[in-house]
Design goal:
Strand content: under 5%
Structural class: mainly alpha
Distance between the termini: 35 Å
Shape: globular
Number of strands: 0
Radius of gyration: 21 Å
Order of helices and strands: HHHHHHHHHHH
Oligomer: single chain
Number of domains: 1
Length: 292
Amino acid sequence: MKAGWRLAKTVRKSVARDRTIFLYPILSGIVSVAVFILIFVSLFIALPASSGGYTILFYMGFLFLAYIIMAFISTYILLSMLIAYRAFNSGNPVTIRNSLRKAWGYAPQALEWSLFYSVLIMILRIIESRIRGIGGILIGATGSFMIAVATFFVVPSILDNKSGPIRAIEQSVSTIRKNFGETFGGVAYVDLYTLGFTLGGFIIFIIGLTVIPSTVPSIFVAVLIIVGLMLIALGIIFNFTYMNVLKLVLFDYINGRGLPEGFNEADINAAIKRRGSGGMFSSNFSTFNNNF
């Protein structure tokens, strides 16, 4: 537990060395919201006049398109962020524009992954919607968890190997199956840290909505709501950044690329264990490097 917490803390310190990394989740959120609004508005505009409302096929088509576009935006900007993180740690920092340009070389793989992932999510949502009650909830939760685990290292795999979706999932699952023991390092601790912001913001936001304006000044209510929303946004930004940097660090270390400055191999080895080795994952003291 101590090693996992130290590892998560090291990720935060590593990211803090180049705070421009936080601009990527913000950019992803802004673009995603803008695209979502555009798609939502287009849905109303594009509906056939004779349809008499939403036809199921038309609605499903737009929903599937939204999934693909949103997944592509998220994956593309995430690849850009990881490229920038690697470049900074190699001593050759790049601007956001340059990292986005470099990530364009992965656009075909990002699009393939987005299509594949969208199909998975759509199938899960269709199955979930057909089963009502606790059964549907359990299927949705189980399916989402399985997808999250299976795709944990997909983006680092795409970045390192330009893998297609099937190959990327195989590499992700293989990495987890062969290298991780009972603990998953700093993953849970990154979640706990960011949950503090998100949950705290949510509680403050709810308090702001539920207090009686007649007994509390309106300005105080407004401040509570704004502070709550800001904390929720910070939690989302931190989780996006820290979690994906941690995935990249673990994936690179397991595949012999070494560790960025500031990471302790003992903490990494306390989190990962090659199956069948009878001991902790053997250390790799190679210098952290990149091909970008």
